[in-house]
Structure formats: structure tokens, C-alpha cells
Amino acid sequence: MRTSTYRNTILATLKEAHLLSIADICKSIPQVNFSTVFRNLEQLCKEGLVKRLFIDKDYVLYESINPHNPHDHFFCTTCHMIQSLAPQKNFLKQIPGIEISDVLVRGICESCKK
Prior knowledge:
Layout: H1 3-16, H2 22-28, H3 34-46, E1 50-56, E2 59-64, E3 72-76, E4 82-85, H4 89-92, E5 104-107, H5 110-113
Parallel strand pairs: 3-5
Antiparallel strand pairs: 1-2, 3-4
């Protein structure tokens, strides 16, 4: 496969799933190696087609950007469940002098609170 084919395959894989790690993408496309996936994801992020979700310094997920479905994320710090949220940026725009690119809300989900 050529690079553009890898790029298109990676993008299609991300469109089918909500959030994937590089390892998840490599499992879905076994003929591609980690560094190829990484390089293509970096380029797709620069082009604004994919965004990174930093859970912590060692846990990064990727998702395709769908302009018809803007959303932010909730991360349960107990069970590690991730859920889509309605965009929170409008609430945070009240803070002068900052530009919000994305929001990750951390907390404990309803199931873990029980």
C-alpha cells in the first residue's frame, strides 16, 4: 500500500469508531506498522481532519473530526469510560483572553458512584 492509501484507510478506520489509540488502529489495519500510523495521524491532525484527545501523558486517543457532530468528552477517572458531551466551549468563552480548542471533563460516572 502507498502512503495515500494508508492515510485513507486510517481515516476510514477512525470514521467507523469514535476514539482509537495508535495501537487500536494498528490492530484494525495489521499490514501497517506503528510508525506509519503515527506519521499519518500527525499529518491528518495538521490538516484538521483528525484530533487528539490527551487523557494523560501516556494515553492519547484519536478521532476523525465531523463538523456536523461537534462534541467534547467526559472521562471517568475510575472505570476509564469515555462519553461524548454536548460542546462545552460556549460556557468557557466567558473567560477573556483564551481560545478553547477542545474540552475534556474528568470525573466519576454514575455507575462508579454507586
